[in-house]
Design a protein that fits this description.
Strand content: over 45%
Helix content: 10-25%
Distance between the termini: 31 Å
Order of helices and strands: HEEEEHEEEEEE
Number of strands: 10
Oligomer: single chain
């Protein structure tokens, strides 16, 4: 009888938890607009390393990005971004920890689309951390996207400026990842 109860408890515990991780499919994109708005800087990096866990439809997600992989398409701008502003020698990674994201029941077992679900979390960047809010979407193939905005000054990052054109303080960050069940 004890064995049956133990097996039942293990089954219930394991069915209440699910874990996913990112594959190598996806990307991270950031967009910054200049002041005046005639300049738009778009950068990208490969998919962040992501682990997502669920328990009773509550999601916790941790996504880490190597900032040295960011590229804007202009080598000199990339060098300045990494060395002067992000200081990747001291702070090589950014980490997003989503702490509040609710998903529908049984989403991990049956393929359903989830559109623009709000989330809250914390972004660790440039040796600082600040709260973030954004939206999360998931399609039937478990391709997940997120979007959120940050203020560079919240992370102690100097606002880039070149020849009188200044980048806006707010930067939009988007991720696209393919989730795979562990």
């Amino acid at each position: 009888m004890k064995t049956i109860l133990l097996l039942l408890a293990i089954f219930l515990i394991s069915s209440a938890h699910a874990a996913f991780h990112s594959t190598k499919v996806g990307q991270t994109i950031f967009e910054a607009v200049g002041k005046p708005a005639m300049i738009k800087i778009k950068g990208e990096a490969p998919v962040p390393t992501t682990i997502m866990k669920t328990e009773n439809n509550k999601v916790s997600l941790e996504s880490t990005l190597d900032l040295n992989l960011l590229k804007t398409g202009i080598d000199l701008r990339d060098e300045h971004m990494k060395e002067k502003y992000l200081e990747t020698g001291k702070h090589p990674q950014a980490k997003l920890v989503i702490t509040s994201l609710d998903l529908p029941a049984n989403w991990e077992d049956s393929p359903i689309a989830i559109k623009d679900q709000p989330f809250k979390g914390t972004l660790h960047l440039h040796g600082k951390e600040a709260p973030v809010e954004g939206i999360f979407s998931l399609n039937e193939k478990r391709e997940a996207t997120s979007e959120f905005k940050i203020k560079l000054t919240d992370f102690g990052i100097e606002i880039p400026e070149y020849m009188g054109i200044k980048v806006a303080e707010t930067v939009t960050i988007k991720t696209q990842i393919q989730l795979e069940k562990k």
